[in-house]
Amino acid sequence: MTQRIGNPLPFFTDKRGLPMDGGRLYVGEVNEDPELSPVTLYLDEACTAPIAQPLLIVGGFATDDGNPAFFYVQEDTYSLRVRDRDGGEVYYFADAVVEQDQWQPVNPGLSAIAALVTTAYGRGVLTQPDASALRTYLGMVASLPLSGGTMTGNILRNGGGPHVYHTNTAFTSGRIFITAAGAPDPTTLPGDIWLERAP
């Protein structure tokens, strides 16, 4: 594959069209004065390394400590002003965004998704059309069966209170009955508990 070579950095000129040297670049809120309403500039696309304004323009390039660099903002658009070395305004744009690639700050969750997409398994997970298809793809059951199966430990039943846990495996039931005094014994299974109210 071939690539066309181009200048990746913006180039700033003075009013005569010559490379600006010693100028200042200000970036601010859209449709506002960037010197009075600046936005935070960053040296990295993750927006973790802020840099102070104004940016010094050297040989036509905005620089960081004299070295041409890329700069980033988190805003979708911004205003921009350039002043020459004497402080005179060379140009001002109320909405200066250039149609180009936008950078998404690095996010651990997005990075994990991106890593997942690189595997066949991950692509399969992410391309399922709905939750039902995803459960089928992953071999997950929609819910616990209504009968049968084995469960260990203690569980809470929706609307039914706690399930009694017996350490004695001979006890097959965990029902608790509370009756009025003199009522007949309702227990029928090993592990049933009967509490009779005093008269």
TrEMBL record:
Tell me which residues make up the Bacteriophage P22 tailspike N-terminal domain: 6-97
InterPro entries to which the protein is assigned, alphabetical: P22_tailspike_N, P22_tailspike_N_sf
Q: What name has this protein been given in UniProt?
A: Phage tailspike protein
Q: From which organism does this entry originate?
A: Novosphingobium rhizovicinum
Q: What is the lineage of its organism?
A: Bacteria, Pseudomonadati, Pseudomonadota, Alphaproteobacteria, Sphingomonadales
